[in-house]
């Protein structure tokens, strides 16, 4: 099976702009999670979607949002970008009944 | 509180030496623990999960509920083991990660 894919791989934005990142899970996986990875904070959970419903949300401001489509593909959106939003954003999918997650290559977001 | 602690940011060993990457957790429930590895320029990938109790690439990890630990061990390090290692706790449909330990295996 193909692995988790994320697009785009790299993004450069300026403060105040908004951005949308996309994730396609492994075929058959209905759960998609998003994580933010930074040198200072490490890997932090953003949110998790299952069957188009957000089931869990991390401790991030409302500027961070997401959604999931009927084909399990997911997008996350960050509005009013701040310099501190520069990070690697990872998407992961999970098979039903398991806690192990399979990660995509990430989208490197740089906010100038 | 749900927390994973990896006390070492960097662990440097020589090839052939034993390796132990420490991980302690805090969780009020039955924990599910994982080790993930990130090689240079590669995606984060699952190395071990405590439920399977298997050995991958010579690495093993035993869950010690009394000491709330899940240390990763390998008897003889190889240069290709050099990578970032993350311990993670599975909780409520999410993973809680430690800060990671960079393992550097010197020739």
Please characterize this protein's 3D structure:
The complex is a heterodimer of chains A (112) and B (107). Chain A is mostly beta strands. Chain A has no helices and 11 strands. In chain A, strands 2, 4, 5, 6, 9, 10 and 11 form a 7-stranded mixed beta sheet that branches. Chain A has a 4-stranded antiparallel beta sheet with strand order 1-3-8-7, with no helix packed on it. Chain B is mainly beta. Chain B is 0% helix and 47% strand. Chain B has no helices and 11 strands. In chain B, the strands form 3 sheets. In chain B, strands 2, 5, 6, 9, 10 and 11 form a 6-stranded mixed beta sheet that branches. Chain B has a 3-stranded antiparallel beta sheet with strand order 3-8-7, with no helix packed on it. A two-stranded antiparallel ribbon of chain B has the order 1-4. In chain B, strand 5 and strand 6 form a beta hairpin. Chain B is globular and about 40 Å long. Chains A and B meet through strand 4, strand 5, strand 9 and strand 10 of A and strand 5, strand 6 and strand 10 of B.
Outline of this structure?
The complex is a heterodimer of chains A (112) and B (107). Chain A is an all-beta fold.
């Amino acid at each position: 099976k193909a692995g988790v894919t994320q697009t785009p791989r790299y993004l450069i934005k300026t403060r105040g702009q908004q951005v949308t990142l996309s994730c396609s899970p492994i075929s058959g996986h209905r759960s998609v999670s998003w994580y933010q990875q930074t040198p200072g904070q490490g890997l932090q959970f953003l949110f998790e979607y299952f069957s188009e419903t957000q089931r869990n949300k991390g401790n991030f401001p409302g500027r961070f949002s997401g959604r999931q489509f009927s084909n399990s593909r997911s997008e996350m959106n960050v509005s009013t970008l701040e310099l501190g939003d520069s990070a690697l954003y990872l998407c992961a999918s999970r098979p039903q009944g398991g806690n192990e997650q399979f990660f995509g290559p990430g989208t490197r977001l740089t906010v100038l | 509180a749900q927390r994973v602690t990896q006390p070492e940011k960097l662990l440097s060993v020589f090839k052939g030496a034993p390796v132990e990457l420490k991980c302690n957790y805090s969780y009020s429930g039955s924990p599910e623990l994982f080790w993930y590895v990130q090689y240079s320029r590669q995606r984060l990938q699952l190395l071990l999960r405590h439920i399977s109790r298997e050995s991958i690439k010579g690495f093993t990890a035993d869950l010690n509920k009394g000491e709330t630990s899940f240390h990763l061990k390998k008897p003889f390090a190889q240069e290709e083991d050099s990578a970032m290692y993350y311990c993670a706790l599975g909780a409520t449909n999410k993973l809680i990660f430690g800060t990671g330990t960079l393992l550097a295996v010197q020739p």
